[in-house]
Amino acid sequence: MNKSLFSFVLLCICLLQISKLGLCLQGKAHKGNNGLKRRGVTSVTSFGAVGDGKTDDTKAFLNAWKAVCNGGSRGNRQLLVPRGKTFMLKPLTFEGPCKSSSIFFLIRGNLVAPNHPWHAGTYPAWISFDSINGLVITGGGTVNGRGSVWWRKVHHRPTAMHFNNCNGLHIYNLRHLNSPRNHISLGCSENINLSGLNMFAPGDSPNTDGIDISNCRGVDIRDSVIATGDDCIAINRGSSYINITGIFCGPGHGISVGSLGENGYFSAVEEVRVKNCTLTNTMNGVRIKTFQNGSGFARKISFEDIKMVASENPIIIEQNYHDRANNAEASFEYSNSQSCHVNRLHHTLSGSGNGRGVKVSDVSYTRIHGSSASDEAITMNCDADLGCVDIVMNHVNIVSARSGHKVLASCKNVHGKYFDSLISCQKKH
Ligand SMILES: *[C@@H]1O[C@H](CO)[C@@H](O)[C@H](O)[C@H]1NC(C)=O
Ligand SMILES: *[C@@H]1O[C@H](CO)[C@@H](O)[C@H](O)[C@H]1NC(C)=O
Ligand SMILES: *[C@@H]1O[C@H](CO)[C@@H](O)[C@H](O)[C@H]1NC(C)=O
Ligand SMILES: *[C@@H]1O[C@H](CO)[C@@H](O)[C@H](O)[C@H]1NC(C)=O
User: How far apart are alpha carbons 4 and 8 in whole angstroms?
Assistant: First the structure.
């Protein structure tokens, strides 16, 4: 081999290696763009969080949050709670606005509340998020409210995670356990997606709603399992354009619009679609509940493709709920639906009324099937003056969960249409 040929071969090998390196770098860059940019991730541990389940990591989390929220630089907008560790947090608020238009909160590990109650104020929450736009919370980790130290011992109990004024919020792929009260409450926000959530608390734990919504517009909740002690999902006043799809609910109190109009307040909910959900051993199935002394409306609500498995009250509208002094449920539900700090939103759903009741109209039940644990599969108790109007039932076929029993519908002041339903407020059309 002469010298020039040798150099040529060497050059070729070199070029090959360089091109391999190039490919390799390209691959790395591709991976980087696709998933986590290592550089852009801020771990709470780098701000001193310990994660042994005992040390108070609140301060470290708040400092890490400040760095991410104020950081602003392109990559540095991901807060990481690392896998394999358990971080104990006291009540805290993650506040915006942040520099970046989107912030990732990656919960890979576990968050736990203190294992003793604390004094919880008027709208109490363990973990609050306030005024953060484009917040994404995910990571496959667990949020454990350790509610058992509160249940039946303390009257004012906190929500586990509360969101106020968080537009463009996206929460997916997380586990929520044993909140002292509601697991997630959404308030005063627009454009929210929740999916792939698993929420568990004992069936007899008090007021442990899965997800509460108030004063929100544009919420999509899908593909989640909610098994808790109260409503799986409750849609409270000031809420509109709410889609709920692919939810497995139960045990719990079902999927509920309201209560609306407690203490005589104006309350309005519209444009709600509940679709493709399964409710198992729930106290109520799909419910609309309004107070007699309130005002406002619940309208344009549809329930479609719902399967009931031994639900106690599969379909229920209660329009004449009475306000009572010291009504524990009324005050509980009112405190769920706090008013907004941001008045820019929700003009359309505010108003005042004469307190003669909350109007219920344009509600459809389509392809509701399965079984009722009680003999009364449909209960509609509507006000003599207002009535419930434009109630449509289409293919409502519920049978008794108990062999030999027949189910019936109990309806007062209901106006509507019925198609192909085994059971309805009227006879078949
Ligand atoms: C929610 O999902 C819809 C439809 O998939 C999408 O258009 C919207 O941008 C999402 N919003 C957020 C906040 O993720
Ligand atoms: C709810 O579903 C309807 C019909 O699929 C869709 O047009 C609407 O954009 C959805 N709204 C939200 C907030 O996801
Ligand atoms: C109904 O929801 C289940 C559970 O999330 C899902 O697997 C299924 O694809 C959904 N079906 C339709 C027709 O949307
Ligand atoms: C609700 O209305 C009833 C009947 O008008 C009245 O007796 C009662 O005091 C009212 N309750 C409240 C809390 O306003």
Answer: 6
The residues near 309 (Cβ < 8 Å, ≥ 6 apart) are 250, 278, 279, 280, 281, 370, 371, 401
Q: Which residue is closest in CA terms to ligand 3's atom 1? A: 246
**Whole-prediction pTM:** 0.88
| Candidate list 176, 253, 415, 429, residue with the active-site label | 253
What is the identity of the amino acid at 160?
A: A
pLDDT tens by residue, 82-111: 999 999 999 999 999 999 999 999 999 999
253 carries an active-site annotation: yes
pLDDT in tens, 151-208: 988 888 999 999 999 999 999 999 999 999 999 999 999 999 999 999 999 999 999 9
Mean pLDDT over the full length of the chain = 86
Ligand 4, from 320, 322, 323: best to mutate by most atoms within 8 Å of Cβ?
323
Q: Tell the residue nearest (CA) to atom 10 of ligand 1.
A: 193
363-411 tens-digit pLDDT: 999 999 999 999 999 999 999 999 999 999 999 999 999 999 999 999 9
220 lines ligand 1 (CB under 6 A): yes
How crowded is residue 375: how many other Cβ atoms within 10 Å of its Cβ?
12
Q: Taking a C-beta distance cutoff of 8 angstroms, is the pair 57, 87 a contact?
A: yes
Residue 341 has a pLDDT of 55
Phi-psi region of 261 (alpha: psi -120 to 50; beta: other; left: phi over 0): left
Nearest bound ligand to the CA of residue 304: 3
Report whether pLDDT(51) > 90: yes
Q: Which ligand is nearest to the CA of 331?
A: 4
Residue bearing the CA closest to ligand 3, atom 10: 246
Q: Can you spell out the DSSP letters for 361-382?
A: EEEEEEEEEEEESSSEEEEEE-
Q: How far does the centroid of ligand 1 lie from the alpha carbon of residue 223, in Å?
A: 14
Ligand 1 within 6 A of 193 CB? yes
Ligand 3 mean position to 224 CA, how many Å? 10
Beta strands in 281-345 (DSSP E): 284-291, 295-311, 313-321
* Span from the CA of 191 to the centroid of ligand 2 (angstroms): 11
For residue 38, the model assigns a pLDDT of 56
What CA–CA distances, in Å, run from 230 to 48, 301, 385? 37, 21, 31
- Kindly tell me if the per-residue pLDDT of 74 is higher than 80: no
249 Cα–ligand 3 center, Å: 14
